[in-house]
From TrEMBL, chains A, B:
Residues 11-65 form the HTH lacI-type domain. It comes from the Bacteria. The keyword Transcription applies. This is Transcriptional regulator, LacI family. Gene3D superfamilies: 3.40.50.2300, lambda repressor-like DNA-binding domains (1.10.260.40). It comes from Ktedonobacter racemifer DSM 44963. One of its GO terms (molecular function) is DNA-binding transcription factor activity. Keywords: DNA-binding, Transcription, Transcription regulation. PROSITE patterns: HTH_LACI_1 (PS00356), HTH_LACI_2 (PS50932).
Length: 347, 347
DNA sequence: GTGAAAGCGCTAACAG
DNA sequence: CTGTTAGCGCTTTCAC
C-alpha cells in the first residue's frame, strides 16, 4: 500500500525526481516504460513512486501529448435498456485500450446546440462513438476532424464513414421466413413508419421473404409504429379489427412485441395457440415473457465492442482492418410461434 | 456557423489574440466572462472567436485550474437495467453543472487492482459517484482525498460519508403490509442471503410488518436468494414444496419476481388467482408482465440526480444542503395481488 | 483596461 | 544512460 506523504496534495513528478535524486525526464522515462534507463536507476525511481503513491497527472499529460485518453459515447437517450450492452461493449474495449468512456445523452435535443459537437472540437476527447446519428450530426462530425465511428448509422448508404451495423434486412427476412415455414400466410409487420434505416431494412426483409414465397404484400398488414410498446399495442388492436386478421405478427422490435402481447391478452387471444408473435433485438426480458418470445437476436455487446475497437485503431492511427462492419443477427426460437396447422382459428 | 480556418488544427487562444489584435490574457478574460474588459474589445474578440470557431482546450484549462470537469460514475456492472435511470439522473445533473460523466464498470473485479481508484488520485476527475460500494472501496476512497458520494451505500451505518439511499426498510414494510391488508397470513420473502444493506433492510421491514400484525416469523418462508431471476425461480419452487405453502410472495426485487412468475407458470399456478406476488424496484418491464406486477417503486432517477447534485456541491466547495439523503419508496399497485378471500386455495 | 511574465505537470529532442 | 532545455494552451498575478 502506498504510504501517504505529509502534504495533502499528491506528489508531482518533480518531487519524485528530487527524492530519488534523478532528473525529471528520468522519472518520466521510467513512467513510460522506456528502455533507456539503467536498471538500478529504474528500481530506485520505482521504489519512490510506489512509496509516495505517485500517479501521473492526466491533464498535464493530455496537454503535452494532445490526447486525453477519453472517448465520448453519444446516445440519443438513456432510458432504453437496448443501449446497455452497447455501452458495456464499448466500455470494455475502451478500457482495455487504457482509455475511458465519457457518456453523453442528447435526448434528441436540437443538434444545433449539441454540446458534444464542441467536445469533439475542444480536444477534450480523442474520438466519438455516435449511436443512431442523424444525417446532420454526421456532417458536423466530419467537419470536426476527429475520429469517430457510427453505431446504427441512419445516414444514407453513400456515407463512407466508419460504422458498425447489424443485418436488419436479413433479420427481417429470417423472422418472416420462420413464420412462413410454420405455414403462416397472413403475416403482419409492425414498424412501418419508423424512419430509421434499420426499420426500413426490416420491412424490406419482410417483403422479400413474402415475395420469395410468392405471397402478395397486403398493405393492411403493414402497420405503422415506432419502436415502442404502445405502438405495438395499437397496431395489434387495429390488426384484429381487420376482416381477415393475420395469424402471425412480426414486431419490428421487442418493445413492440410486448405491446402486441398486451393487446392480445386484453382480447383474450393466447400466444401461440391463436397467434404467433416474433420480435426483434432479443432484450433480456423477452426470455421471461409469457410465453417466452421468439425473436431475432441483435448482437448489441459486439456492436459496442466492434465500434470501440475501430475507434481505438483510428485514434492510434493504425488503420482498422475494416472500417465498416456489419454484424449478423440470428433467430432465437422460444415459444411464441406455432405451426399454423396447430393454431386455433379465430371466428 | 463557425468558419473553418485554413489550417487543419484548431486555433489556440494565442492565434485568436493575435488576429483580434489584443493580448492573450485579454482573450482569456473574455472567455471567462470577466468584467474588466472594454465593451468594444470584448466584442471584437468575440467576433474573432465566433468566426474561427475557437473552443478552449480543456486539457490546458484543467492543468492550470486543477479541475478537469469530469465526474466518474463507478458501477459494479453494466448489464442490469436497474442502473440505467441512475446513470441518466447523474448524467443530467452533471451536465447541467457543465461537467461530463465518465463511466466505469468494475465487474466486481478485485478491488485490489481497481483502476478507478487511481483515477481518483491522478486528478483526472473531480469527483466520484460510487454505486453499491464495498466497505473496502469506501476506505480507499476516503484516503484518496477527493470528493465522492455513495449510492446505495452498503457500508456500515456508522459511515458518515456523503450518500444517497432509498427507504428499503419502509419498502419492505409497506409491501408486506399491503399483503397483510389483503388478508394474507402466510407471506414468503425471497432475498434473505443477499449481503447488501438494502436486502437486509427489506427483510427487516418484512419482519416488522409481520410483527406489527402479531404474526409469527416462519423461517421456512424466508428464502435465500440473490437479486436475480433464477434465484426467484428456485425459491418459488422450494416454497411450493412446503407442507403449507404461502399464499403470497414478496420478492426482494423485480428480477426475482420474474423468476417467481416463471416458476408459478410452470406449476400451473395463476397470479393473482392462486398466488399474490409483489416485487421491488418497479423496473419498466414489470408494467408489461402478465399480470402487471405490483411492486415497490425505487426512485432511481432521483437517486442519480441527488447523488450528482451533492457531488457537484462538494466539488465546488459549496457545502451541500444535506450530505446524506434517503429517498422514499412507494407502493405501485398493479394486478398481481388479490385479497386472500378471493384467492383460490391450492390442495 | 490591458499586457508582460510566470508556471500548472508532463514529455520530446537533443546534447553530453 | 542522464540531464538540460523548451514548450503544450491556458489562467493568474501584477505592473503599467
Amino acid at each position: 500500500m502506498a504510504k501517504r506523504h505529509k502534504t495533502d496534495s499528491r506528489p508531482t513528478i518533480a518531487e519524485i525526481a528530487q527524492i530519488a535524486g534523478v532528473s525529471i525526464p528520468t522519472v518520466s522515462k521510467v513512467l513510460n516504460g522506456r528502455t533507456d534507463v539503467a536498471q538500478q536507476t529504474r528500481e530506485r525511481v520505482e521504489r519512490v513512486i510506489e512509496e509516495y503513491g505517485f500517479v501521473r497527472n492526466r491533464a498535464a499529460r493530455a496537454l503535452r501529448k494532445g490526447k486525453t485518453g477519453l472517448v465520448d459515447l453519444v446516445l440519443p437517450r438513456l432510458d432504453d435498456e437496448y443501449f446497455l450492452p452497447i455501452l458495456e461493449g464499448a466500455s470494455q474495449v475502451v478500457r482495455e485500450a487504457g482509455m475511458r468512456l465519457v457518456l453523453t445523452s442528447t435526448h434528441y435535443h436540437s443538434e444545433e446546440d449539441a454540446q458534444w459537437i464542441n467536445d469533439a472540437t475542444d480536444r477534450s476527447i480523442d474520438g466519438i462513438l455516435l449511436v443512431l446519428p442523424t444525417e446532420e450530426a454526421i456532417e458536423r462530425l466530419e467537419q470536426a476532424g476527429r475520429p469517430f465511428v457510427l453505431i446504427h448509422n441512419q445516414g444514407g448508404l453513400l456515407n463512407m464513414a466508419p460504422s458498425v451495423r447489424i443485418t436488419s434486412w436479413e433479420g427481417g427476412f429470417v423472422a418472416t421466413q420462420h413464420l412462413l415455414n410454420l405455414g403462416h400466410r397472413r403475416i403482419a409487420y409492425i414498424g412501418k413508419t419508423s424512419p430509421t434505416r434499420d426499420a426500413i431494412e426490416r420491412i424490406a426483409g419482410y417483403r422479400a421473404a413474402l415475395d420469395a414465397a410468392h405471397l402478395p404484400i397486403d398493405p393492411q398488414l403493414e402497420c405503422a409504429g415506432e419502436f415502442n410498446e404502445i405502438d405495438g399495442y395499437h397496431a395489434t388492436r387495429a390488426l384484429l379489427q381487420l376482416a381477415e386478421p393475420p395469424t402471425a405478427i412480426f414486431a419490428g422490435n421487442d418493445h413492440q412485441a410486448a405491446g402486441v402481447y398486451r393487446a392480445l391478452h386484453e382480447l383474450g387471444i393466447t400466444v401461440p395457440d391463436e397467434m404467433s408473435v416474433i420480435g426483434f433485438d432479443n432484450l433480456p426480458y423477452t426470455a421471461i415473457m409469457n410465453p417466452p418470445l421468439t425473436t431475432i437476436h441483435a448482437p448489441r455487446l459486439e456492436l459496442g465492442r466492434a465500434a470501440a475497437a475501430i475507434l481505438v485503431s483510428l485514434i492510434n492511427e493504425k488503420p482498422p482492418e475494416t472500417a465498416r462492419v456489419v454484424l449478423p443477427t440470428h433467430l432465437v426460437e422460444r415459444q411464441s410461434c406455432r405451426p399454423l396447422a396447430q393454431q386455433a382459428h379465430r371466428p
